[in-house]
Write a structure and sequence with these properties.
There is one protein chain. This protein is α/β, with parallel strands linked by helices. It folds into two domains: about 60 residues, Alpha-Beta Plaits, CATH 3.30.70; about 210 residues, HAD superfamily/HAD-like (Rossmann fold, 3-Layer(aba) Sandwich), CATH 3.40.50.1000. The chain contains twelve helices and eleven strands. The strands form two sheets. Strands 8-7-6-5-9-10-11 form a seven-stranded mixed β-sheet, sandwiched between helices. It has a four-stranded antiparallel β-sheet with strand order 2-3-1-4, covered by helices on one side. A hairpin with a 2-residue loop joins strand 2 and strand 3. The radius of gyration is 20 Å and the shape is elongated.
Amino acid sequence: MDLVLQGQQAETPDLKRLAKLTRATEIRQTRPGVFRLAEAEPAAEVAELCRQAQLDWGFIPARRKPADFRLLAMDMDSTLITIECIDEIADWVGVKPRVAAITAAAMRGELDFAQSLQQRVALLAGLEQSVLARVYDERLALSPGAETLLAAMHGVGARTLLVSGGFTFFTDRLKQRLGLDYTASNVLEIVDGRLTGKILGNIVDAGGKAAALRRAQDDLGLSKEQVVAIGDGANDLKMLAEAGVSIAYRAKPVVQGQATYCLNWTGLDGVLPLLGG
């Protein structure tokens, strides 16, 4: 196994300390801010030392490469993009703090996701449909490193899935913009140009996200080991469990405790070194 270390402030003393702790045979810089410690042995102290040094870390098979993975599945809100779309939509009707509090509790796993989504969407009843476009145009931004990650995975022939407890208005546009292969999300009911406060069809909750990943995996004829999934909230846990490699990106504690790897300091391009890139 090799130990991958990533961070904006990777300092030589920290790297040497970790190399000594893990009995690594070599420290190699693979790109700016990314280091690989060859033939490293796992040690319990690594997590705390990396936390103190603000380094993301992960032990990976020495021969792993991005082309080993054929499907990349990602959550949308606060993962592929920096915002929670529903919170920003709620800002137009003056209920953002209320909606954001419910969103945060749901992401921590404290509320049933489907019920919380219905509760939040109900507060948007009567809002003009045009607000959705304003949120997309004025507030939605890709997370750092998102385009680098997607370009690299597309470059090795991997397919991409964007699966979200959010809304098709946003996932459809991101699919076209980024060349994604699959999407799954919720449909807002709109009548006479205004949101009704309801969702059409089945809600894409935790189970729905996992099912979307399995459908894409089956469609492509892949094994679990060929799938990598990225998320940040409790409603991503079932999806993450379906993947051979799961990554918690700037995630809630409940997610960080169950994912294969965690990224807290680097952007989404930090996924690539964990895949052997």
